[in-house]
């Protein structure tokens, strides 16, 4: 049986996705599990170029429809050049964001028609669905406080404000309630505590792939 799995971490700004991807990668490396890590938008040459346009562009408005189509253009390359080849090689893929980000940010956050967003996303992904989407749930205010403590520079989407990000968080919660392949993990507390929660979830959900519960 192939141990290949496509695992995605999602959540609002400051939820700790990037940190948790790094910790999970170190855990899998120590257990000898072949894997790749990548971020979205990005992961490919064209995806990183689009990321720069999407997140760094601050002059003038970017229509929500343009934002959506750029995201999906990057995703189409990501699926075909990163995810599918890695899965075919029997590797685990750990992704920092995927389609739930589009549903939450451009759908719930921007107010684009969610059914239309889903149809366009299915075209971009060629129907690929992650094995598991983990939403790291954190109050928007706590996420902002984390970013402030870390001194991280906010990108174009992060400066949209609390009301926008609250809609995004509620969107994530709605998606978890609707989708059978999604789970929510409490992202409060220190990074190691959250990491243990993730290890337990992954070990319990896919014991044939992951090393087991957090204490193992």
The Cα radius of gyration reads 17 Å
| Shape call | globular
CATH superfamily placement: P-loop containing nucleotide triphosphate hydrolases
Structural class: alpha/beta
Outline the low-pLDDT stretches. none
Share in β-strands: 5-15%
Q: What number of domains?
A: 1
Text of the CATH class:
Alpha Beta
Count of DSSP H/I helices: 8
Largest sheet: 5 strands, parallel
Strand segment count: 5
Please tell me about this protein's structure.
This protein is α/β, with parallel strands linked by helices and 216 residues long. It has one domain: Rossmann fold (3-Layer(aba) Sandwich), CATH 3.40.50.300. Helices cover 54% and strands 12% of the residues. The chain is built from eight helices and five strands; from the N terminus they run E-H-E-H-H-E-H-H-E-H-H-E-H. The protein has helices spanning 17-30, 45-56, 64-88, 99-109, 114-125, 140-150, 162-178, 191-205; strands at 6-10, 35-39, 92-96, 132-137, 182-186. It has a five-stranded parallel beta sheet, with helices on both faces. Helix 4 (99-109) packs antiparallel against helix 5 (114-125) and helix 4 crosses helix 7. It is globular. The protein starts with 5 loop residues before the first strand and ends in an 11-residue tail after the last helix. The mean pLDDT is 92.
